[in-house]
Records
---
Amino acid sequence: MRLTAFLILILSLIAVTGCERVGRMTGAPSKTSLPDYYPAGTDKGEKVAVCYGGATTSMEALAAAAAALCKEPGSTVEFVTEDLHLNECPLLKKRRAVFTCHESR
């Protein structure tokens, strides 16, 4: 009986939050703010930051999401750094990766 009530409660919460909101928190990589610091020797080009789930996102999907955020269409990206704490990413996509955009030639 308690299990049934618990399941109904969980399903109701999911329905109330909406599929879009759940997808933003658990789905594909998404844009976030840039960190205040970068490793020494980092390229000075345009930077983009992406939130992702470490267990569910491949590096190829992460790079494709970062490239889509670059201002120049068709840009390639280079991984700069990542962090896991004190960032604005949702709890289920807590990792933040930073990439440098390079114009395609």
---
Amino acid sequence: MFATLLVIEPLRIFSDMLPTTMYSTRKTLDLEDKDFTQYAVCPKCHTLYNIDAVRKKDIQKCAYKRWPNHQQAAKRSECGTQLLNGSAANPKRVYCVRPVSAYLIDYVKTKNFVRDCNLWRCRTIPDDYLADIYDGSLWKSRTNDYLKNDHSLYGMINVDWVQPFTHTTYSLGVIYAIILNLPRSMRFKEENVMILGVIPGPTEPSLHINTYLKPLVDDLEKLNRGMRLQDGSRYGNIYYFRVLGCSSDLPATRKLGGFISYHAKQGKINTHHITTLLKYYQTVIAWV
């Protein structure tokens, strides 16, 4: 009996040291992502600022002008919203973003990633079956040009808002994407979902999310031209990435695409943002 207790006690102590949740496991093993870029956000107009400049108090108020060339002087005034929490050097809101290229740098080093992204070429599905996105006319129309390259990738982007807290109203937005080239059994796994941006609360933007999309659009512009990534080969390979579509609910789709609200009775479409999306994203299709 005494010998048994000598064996059990160390095991009990060891078990108490083990993390009990996925979050604590990642913290214990130091697996948290440290390459998210942070921006200070204006709480009123959602303009992004360099967070270091805000923390050093080089920038304390939002300088955005909605109508800089308006005939009335009052309309040309700056936003003027305070970016810091009182005297503390902490921004009121912080936007975290990690572009697609940062994920691809890690993915291409993963064993069999390129092979898995090209398994769709070996599928045997009858012509009159629609089993996956590969069987649609949009995907098939790209197989003779963009998709001829084994390193050309298509993605789907999504935006949604969640309530992370139980006893208070706080709406937190998440921009994320998946790689459509991966088989359906793999593309939605946690390790293959790309968290591109976390939009701060407590309320979601009322009209659009253009300012939050700009860092991602800049990155997609580079990937559209091609980016050389080290994937284990001697000189690496040039990889391409384009967004083929978006999959969100109706309100989020309107904000993502720059459209007017779904319950609006009059107004104009944000044609500048739509042109940008069409230019760098190839095409935008919304399933709602």
---
Amino acid sequence: MLLPIAAPAPTRASEIAECCADLDEKAAELESMVLRKGVSNASLQIYGQVNRAILFWNDGFDSRSRVVDNTTSSSRLGFIGQSKIRAGLAAGYRIELEFLFPASSEIFNPADVTHAQPLTNTAVRQVYGFVSDERVGSLSLGYQWSATGNLTIINLGSQMNDAALHYNNGFSLGLSLFGGIFSDLKWGQIAHSVDTLRGSYLRYDTPLLHGFVLSASAGEKDSWDVALRYQADGRAFRFAGGVGYRDDRDNLLREVKGAASLLHNGTGLYVSLAGGLRDDALSSIIGQPPSYFYYGQAGVSKNWLSFGNTTVYADFGVYRNFNVGELLRVDPHTGQLAIWGTLAETEVVRWGYGVEQAVDEAGLLLYAQAHHYGARVSAFPAILIPVSSPISAAAIPITWWRCRCGHGPATWSGREFVSERMRKVTRAPVPDRSTSTQLTWVSANSRVSAPARPAAAAPRCW
């Protein structure tokens, strides 16, 4: 979807014709530049979309709004060039850029000093070349998704919501000690969909055979993965799904992941499921089982209105033991991070709901969403070792503390969110239970979150 944000409208039919003629002339000129003599079998596809949003967030202490680019499906511009070598054989390239200004996944509380990286304005999504044969398959090399990329976000229902976090990634978890302190632990680190990010890969995909496609890729940093995808369009049902395995020796991890989505054509009812298991070196060192997640979305997607499909859904997900074994650092109001402990257990529970409305003639999608994220984090506090010590980077566990965010019973009354106060479970007054919630309404490609406030300002993690 590529839509103009604002443009002066011509007032006369002659002006409209003149405008369109200029566009046709420019398009013909561009085509003549690309398709020169001797390369008449070449083609160039230009595509793009704009997806801007207004995000209102509440992390339990502050509430702000920000205009963002929705990274569920970011604003982008792409080019696919292709030349036909012979019948069934072609070679080409793909270049795709995204314009974030900034990304919804990077937004954070401005009071948080633990963020050292600037926000992204523009980025390269894909740059690769490929050779494709109808009978043999396609081979591509460059910056792209690996074989298991996007595997856990397969969804025949919602176009703007899936197992990955797209809005809460950059926010830090905090403790209410000393009037509230930030940690360097981000929600995106402990709520991972085990999706493989883009990188430099050599990738091979088989031709479509009875609905199946087998993919394999190898990265430049001693990593490889394989995936099997399947899709079917029957009279009664549509189905899409896939499973994959990834071995990344450079980052000392192995992953198994998969997803499946089933839609009933008659009623529009659908269900989408995803899950992943990650085994890494740090989990083994501290004796924790592999990290994992599971996610489900159910709803209805049907053409009730003449101008496009309507989708209504609810979702739920659990993410456990991601980022365990890593050091947890906090800012005790000094502007600098200090080691606080070592993560031993993490858990994020999310739930939400949303509605989407397509306007087919305009290539437009209107959507609204509401999300709630809750976290439970357990760790060993650490004795800080002097820098001169040969083990200055180590954290020695001396006792156990636990912090819980947004995972308690709650009742709703308008926009008010009421939950129980925290309980003290250790010798020190360390927070154990609290609430942190986020509600989001999005319309006209704009995400608006109207968060609810905790009823009591008791000490809490957030």
